[in-house]
């Protein structure tokens, strides 16, 4: 995937992700974002809320079962897996060293929400961590 110029959410999607992050606090919340990877700008179409099996305030893991289910429903909806979302309940929305490691393995947009400053930021790995503007339409 090339580096998109922006990642675009609807107001409702932003509210859904914020609410889910608050519900999961003090642990990290996670979700899989569906869209269309052919777009120069990634427009998020659907959100697949996932369980953080680590139940940790500093890490997240999505089970293989849920990953398989997510890929299955993306395919049914003729959408691509366009991003990975997780929250940072106790820190700013910058990738942790663990995040950076997994971003390199999985070079699609990573969206991080911080519960402490109510901010969404997106990044992608492309020979280094690059920030992608988050837009709300
Ligand atoms: Zn993180």
Give keywords:
single chain; 137 residues; alpha/beta; Cytidine Deaminase, domain 2; six-stranded mixed beta sheet; three-stranded parallel beta sheet; 3 helices; globular; binds zinc ion
Structure report:
With 137 residues, the protein is of the alpha/beta class. The chain has a single domain, classed as Cytidine Deaminase, domain 2 (3-Layer(aba) Sandwich). The chain contains three helices and nine strands; from the N terminus they run βαβββαβαββββ. It has helices at residues 11-24, 64-76, 97-105; strands at 7-9, 30-35, 42-43, 46-50, 80-88, 110-114, 119-125, 129-132, 134-136. The strands form two sheets. It has a six-stranded mixed beta sheet with strand order 4-2-5-6-7-8. Strands 3-1-9 form a three-stranded parallel beta sheet. It binds zinc ion. Zinc ion binds at residues 86, 88, 96, 99, 112.
Terminal Cα span: 23 Å
**Helical proportion, percent range:** 25-40%
Class computed from helices, strands and strand pairing: alpha/beta
- The top-level CATH class is Alpha Beta
Unreliable parts: none
Rg (C-alpha, Å): 14 Å
Beta-strand portion reads 25-35%
Number of helices, counting only DSSP H or I runs of 4 residues or more: 3
Order of helices and strands: EHEEEHEHEEEE
| Bound molecule kinds, no repeats | zinc ion
How many discrete structural domains? 1
The total count of strands amounts to 9
Largest sheet composition: 6 strands, mixed
CATH evolutionary superfamily: Cytidine Deaminase, domain 2
Give me the CATH architecture, please: 3-Layer(aba) Sandwich
- Please state the overall shape, judged from the principal axes of the Cα atoms: globular
Under CATH, the topology can be stated as Cytidine Deaminase, domain 2
Strand order of the largest sheet: 4-2-5-6-7-8
Average pLDDT, rounded to a whole number, is 95
